[in-house]
Structures are given as structure tokens and as C-alpha cells.
Amino acid sequence: MISLQVQNNQSFDLSEIPFLTKENFRNSVLEGLTNGFRMIGLTPIKKEKPERLIAILADASSSMIHLIGGEYDKTNLQFESFANTFPQTNYFECELSEKYGYLPRNNPWLRPVRKQNVIVGNQPYQFYKLEGEEVHEVAVGPIHAGIIEPGHFRFQCHGELVYNLEINLGYQHRGVEELLLRSKPVQKIILSESIAGDTVIGHTYAHCSAIESLSDTQISLRAQVIRSIAEETERIAMHLSGLGGVANDIGFALVSSSYGRLRTLAINSLALLCGSRFGRGLFVYGGVRYDFTDGIIEGVLANLQIIKNDVAVINEYLFSSIGALARFDNTGVVSKELATQIGLVGLAARSCGIEEDARIHFPYSAYRYNPVSEITLSSGDVFARVRLRALEIEESIRFVIDQFENFPDGDIKSVVEKTNPHKGVVSIVEGWRGEIVHTVFTDEQGNLSQYKIKDPSFNNWYGLSLALRKTAISDFPLCNKSFDLSYAGHDL
Amino acid sequence: MKDAIKVRILQGDPIIHDVRNVQFPARYRGLPSIEAKSCVDGCSACSDICPTNAIALNPVRINLGKCVFCPQCEESCPEKIIHFTNDYHISANSKEQLIVTQETKSISPEKASSKIRKYFGKSLKLRQVSAGGCNGCELELNALSNVNFDMGRYGIEFVASPRHADGIVITGPITKNMANATSICFEAVPNPKIIILVGACAISGGIFQNSEEIQRQFLKENNIDLYIPGCPPHPLTFINGLLDWLDAR
User: Fold this and answer.
1) Model ipTM?
2) Are A41 and A439 in contact (CB under 8 A)?
3) What CATH code would you report for B114-246?
């Protein structure tokens, strides 16, 4: 296959991307997908040149990212859909269609991504509808019963069982990608911190790594380690939050409130380091703003020790409870085969037995020297997704404690020059939900000319839809919380 | 049963008893203080670097409704006259109160009208609407009901339906796609009702103030009762703001 091969965070000249004819582009992309590569991006080189399309595929086995360019006719933006053979590409095609007016011919399911009820050419969108006796539709949202982001869910039910769930998002669309292009550097970091407020570290990590690669900036080892400690602390905090949420959804109040208490300790550890419970203000281009002092390390270690100790006891209680297991086991199952087809990422993929973790397969900064263990489970149900999070908490605590024991000395901030002209970079980070991808291109002056963000939720919302099939509608909250997806990260 | 007791014993007594006086981490950025010194002639470093245009000059004033509490103004000031303190009592009930000047020593909302205090002083039920919020503010509002903050002890709770609520709490800059749902939700709340804005995005648009995807007409048409600044605001900022405003403790 013809493609430009780069590693995670390796910058390249835009002229290195091969721009092929429509037919060769299609063949190259199909070849990659047939080889088991995963699509992680489908975007034009810039808004003003929608006819120069770039497909980005990730090959976990070689840790390489493949960029394939395709030259289209500006007056006739059409391509033959890949989604009939490779459903994982479907949502990327929908997004491309919505944002740049492409028509994916023979696409099996062209649906809105962020717009409300319209698809390409302002055609009204028809929700899928089940008809027949004793069939009914349940429509929920955008505003849900709780402190949660907005989204619209339509369940096609037969009695208690869900036959199809359609998830319609976009309510949180704030225009992050557009703002990132036309804002000042000082604003860009704040924007990346606000892509998904529960994944501040993950997204800012990807953003800063991308800008640093484009400006040939080397980050000190100490700063890299601090970044990875923050990343793992965020993972611990959000996994605790998710476990608490799941326990709450099955009415297990003692367990839920206990995880909640421990989450406070985890996010307060981030506040010790940088003042914000979510890690805002920690990242600057070229490193980090705040260093660990002995006192802060002591405080963080004390918190982690409590979490480690208490989580073991709480897990024991939760996972030996027959009532809890009865709700978790075989609920909301996604098979490994299905998960591979639709391109699930992150913890949802790992709980189906797919080895997919950017820290291991596309290693970046500190994770290149200090690896984490990959944990997978095979059952693909609520149990696996919950259990996996419990196991990942242990591994992240192990990782953070190890870093403190071998903490490299040095500066925490390097000088950053302007981003180089006509360059590109693909920056992948394993956030707590899964794979975050920031793809950034610069123009002739070195200003950002394209910024594409892919949150793991972009891949995984469809997984939730499929997990609900033939599942009782009353299990929806539990399934939803076990995936724990982002609306803001999807809607951008 | 034995496991349950073990878990309960570990839980201990995690509640924050005195929500007024909590020791925050040294690096926490709360109410900024501006020293009564004059700036270097023609210097505009702080307002130039501010990502949300929160700073006005001559003399220096910081609009907490826009501030995202990044410390860039503090870092850029050659005279070091801006300094973020640990004070987390920063809620206000008017936009004027949110402007921090050299004279500002503390911020707290004025008491609500006697009618509001009579109606809601002992029991306030709120419906939260996320209108483009990034889930930062939402997480902190969720944390209000955990065992550490336990806002329910003051009779303040979040409810599922606007019909059961006494007011709405808005987070996020209000996206075009949520503008309609936000006003429908508010209409569904029975009178008398209040509006609380949480976070820089809701109060001013924050980092998204120049986005073409937001629609803030709803805020112009309705009276705002309480502003809780921050990015996101700390749960204790929210609790104290409400307690001060309702004069309930």
C-alpha cells in the first residue's frame, strides 16, 4: 500500500503525504483496513481545500501511523463508502460528510454527527423506527435526569427489551476545532483543557505533544514523568468515579459513596500538584508549570496509599456481592468480533479482549521508558468493563509510585519556538477512556491550518448502542455508566 | 455483612464539618488580589496574555466572570501586583461584584430578598442544565452530593425534573444546539424560580466567548440570581455562595 508512515508524535513535511488518484486512494485505504489497521482520522488537509483528503490509519502491530492522501474533484466531492465492508469507518464518513460536504456513495447509514436532524445537502434525517405489535419507542433527552451532559437517545423496544438504540449527539458543540485554529497560543492550551473536562490531562497532553513536535521541542525527562504521573492520577480518579457511578446505578450506596470518597483523594492529589482538582494549569508548551516538592510527593503518596488499601477492601465487597454480579454478568455484551468491526477503543475494547492501549502500542513520552502492563478481559459485558477499571486503578497506582522512586532530576520547562511551516503531526494519547488523537497541520507561515480531534467517545458511542440490543431497557443506566462516554469530547 | 462493616469502618468520618474554613492546597487559585501599586508605564502584559479577556487596565481590574484561573497574568506581571490567593469564597449575585479591583478584599453575595429566603432558605431543589459544559463543572456539581461535601444537609439538592425544582443551574456557554432545550427547561420550573450560573463559560462564555456556535439570548431575557465563578468552581465555592445568599446556616 502507498502511504506515509510515521510514529506517534513524529512530525513530517506535508509534501511527504502521497496524494493519489481516487481509485488508488480507495485501494490503499482498503488494503490497510484489510490488514487490520484501524481508522483514526479522515479529514481534508484544510477547510479551504476539501478536495485534498487524508485518511489516517493506525497499525498497532508495527506501532506505525499511515497517512494516505486522495485527490478529489472540488465540484464533485463523492467517494465510494468503505463502511459496508468496514463498519469502523462509518462514523468518520458521516463526520466528513457533515463538515465538508462529501457524499459517501452507498454508505449504509448516513446520520448526523453534531448537527440536529439533517444530513448532507440539508436532507432531513429519519430516525430508525421499529413497527409492529407491542412495539414502542422511548425517547430521552437532550436533558437527562441528573447532572449529566445532554444527548438524545431513542430506544425501539418490544416490551422490556431494546431492539435498537439510536444515539443523537451534538448538543455540546462549541466549535473547539475552529477556535483552536484562530486563537492565540495562550488560549489554545485552555481550549484543549476544555475539550472534555473529565479528561483535561489526556487532551492537553495530546495537544502539547503535537505543538512540541511541530516546533522541534525536546521535553526534559522530569517533565515527561510529571505529565505521565498526572495522566495516571486522572485515570485513577475517573475510574474511581466510574466505579462509584456503576455502584450507584445498582443501588449499592455504601460502595458508591466509598469510591466517591477515594476519588476526592485522587483529584485532591492533582490539586496539590497544580492547584486544580482536574489538572488545569499544569501543562505548558515545553513541559509543565509546576514541579513536585518533597512535601507534595509525600502528600500524594499518602493519598495513593489510602486509595490502594481501601480499594482492595471495597472491590472485595463489590465483586463478591451476588446482587451486584447478577446485574453485571452478561449484561450489555459486545463480542470481540463486533468490537473489532466497529473499531472500539480504550477500556471498552480491552474488556472485549482486544489489545488496544496507546501507552503500549503507540508509546509516547515517559511511557517509552517506563511501560505499563496491558490488562484485558474477555467477556465484553458490564462486569468486564467494571472489573477492568478496578484492575487499571491498581496498575496506575503501581506506575505512579514507581515514578516517584526513580524521579529524574532536571528542568521542567524547555524553550518553545514557533511551529514549523508546512508540517503535520499525529499525536496519540491513551486517556482514561481510551485513544485520543490530535492531528495538526501547519500552513506556509507555520500557523495551524487544520486541527482534528478524535476523542475515544467518537468510536465508542456506537458500541453502547450495540451493547443495548436485546437488553432490558432498565439496564440502560448501568450499561451507559460502564462505557462512561463523553458528550463534550464527541461534540467538540 | 463482615465486608460491609469493614467498608463502613474505612469510610470513617469523611464529611467536611466546617465548610466556611477549609485549608486549601497552597497552589489552589482562588480570589485574586491586586496590590495597590502602579503599573509600569504602558505595560499591558497581563491583559495581553489573558486567554479570556478578563483583565481591564488603568487601574488593573479582573473580571471573575471571565477568569479561568490560569495563572498567566500573575506570571506575566513585571511588578508582581497580581496574586491568586487561597480564598474560595468568590460567589456573587451581581456582575459588578465579580470585578476584582485593588480595593477588593473579599467577595460574598448580598442576601437574597426576604421572599426568596422565606421560600427557599430551608429547602432548595435545583435542576441542572449542561448547555455546552465540558463536564468539568458537572463533575464538581455531582461532587456536592458525595460524602465529603454532602450539600443535602443544608436542604439543597439536585432533582431530576424541572417540575420539582425551584430553579435551574446552568453550566456551559449555552450552545446553539442547547439554547432551545435550556429555555424549555426553565419554563417548566414553577414560579418563583431562580437561575444560577456556574463557571466562566456560563457567566461570560469563558474561553468560548468568540465561538460562532453559542447562543446566549436566554441569559439576556432572564434575571440571573447567582454567579459562581471558576473553571470549574470548587464545590465549596458553590455551597458557600448559596448559604451566604440564602442566609442559611
Assistant:
1) 0.92
2) yes
3) 3.40.50.12280
